[in-house]
Design brief:
This protein has about 325 residues and is largely without helices or strands. About 0% of the residues lie in helices and about 5% in strands. Strand 1 and strand 2 form a beta hairpin. The longest helix is centred in the first third of the chain and has 7 residues, at about 1-10. The protein is elongated, with a radius of gyration of 35 Å.
């Protein structure tokens, strides 16, 4: 053990006694300080003591001292210089100063808090609320992020990036590559139509599609990645019977049907919730209190009487 430890203890022209990793008490009695300089900036770090703030960045030559003092150095190694002990000019009077102009002697109007990315604009400082004004108000490097509105002509929830506006709009989400087509937006599925449906720059590109065995436009497991125009596949899943072209989500269903054609989990001719109404006439055949003519309950967000309205007359 002694020979192994002695072999790895190397002196770099530094005098003194420092035992690496606390092994000296049992292994080495006259060990030397072990120091290193990984980034070659001339600032060493020694075992048993803090040294270079960042020994993997040659441009960082500050040495950890434990307490920040106003000296133009990052004493506590938090990447900030003279924070809390220096003074910043606050030209716009917003209470936040210019980080690039920290100084140790206070001048009139100086503050002790930095974080102002534009000290000529009182509406811009670190942590400010972002507003739609063409300014990086919160100093995060982005302008009008989360504040700009985009016109959404087709009502698909995505707006036209080329037309950001601070005027009243309907969506904060851009990315729509065709704001005249409801079916085209970044959240849409790519379908075989020679159109970039999902706004990713590709047309009818490969996508995860579902096997459509009955050709009704809806598929079931398994899904595979193929070109969207590949025969026998579809971007719409949820087919409850991929061998029956009459069965697919939303398919018409009558009270005479003995199979679940619309894939809602019930058969049109049955009354699964035993409320006296068959599934074909009931808007929710899994809830006994929901049926045509039921009493509407206020403020529950449910259409109990199956008239297409929620909480009416409440």
């Amino acid at each position: 053990m002694f020979r192994f430890v002695a072999a790895i203890v190397v002196c770099f022209g530094v005098s003194g006694c420092c035992v690496p990793f606390g092994l000296g008490d049992t292994a080495v009695s006259d060990s030397a300080i072990v120091c290193f300089d990984r980034d070659g900036d001339g600032v060493e770090t020694c075992f048993g003591a803090r040294g270079d703030c960042n020994d993997f960045a040659a441009e960082v030559t500050d040495v950890w001292s434990g307490v920040e003092v106003c000296n133009g150095v990052d004493d506590d190694c938090d990447t900030l210089v003279d924070e809390g002990v220096g003074f910043y000019p606050d030209a716009d009077g917003d209470g936040f100063g210019d980080d690039d102009a920290v100084r140790c002697a206070a001048s009139p109007g100086d503050v002790t808090v930095g974080g102002d990315c534009d000290d000529d604009d009182p509406d811009a400082w670190a942590g400010a609320a972002e507003r739609c004004d063409g300014v990086d108000n919160d100093c995060n490097g982005a302008i009008d992020d989360g504040a700009a509105l985009y016109p959404d002509a087709d009502g698909d929830g995505y707006g036209d990036d080329d037309l950001p506006s601070c005027a009243e709009g309907v969506t904060h989400t851009g990315g729509d590559c065709d704001d005249a087509d409801l079916a085209v937006n970044p959240g849409a599925a790519e379908v075989c139509n020679a159109v970039d449906d999902d706004c990713d720059g590709g047309v009818d590109e490969a996508s995860a599609l579902w096997t459509d065995g009955d050709g009704d436009g809806y598929g079931a497991d398994p899904s595979v990645v193929v070109e969207v125009c590949a025969s026998g596949y579809t971007a719409l899943d949820g087919d409850c019977d991929d061998a029956d072209p009459a069965a697919w989500p939303g398919a018409p269903e009558t009270c005479d049907d003995v199979e679940d054609l619309n894939c809602d989990g019930s058969v049109g001719s049955t009354d699964a919730d035993h409320d006296g109404f068959r599934a074909c006439d009931d808007c929710d055949d899994a809830a006994w209190f929901v049926f045509p003519g039921a009493t509407e309950i206020c403020d529950d967000g449910i259409d109990e009487d199956c008239d297409g309205e929620i909480d009416e007359d409440c």
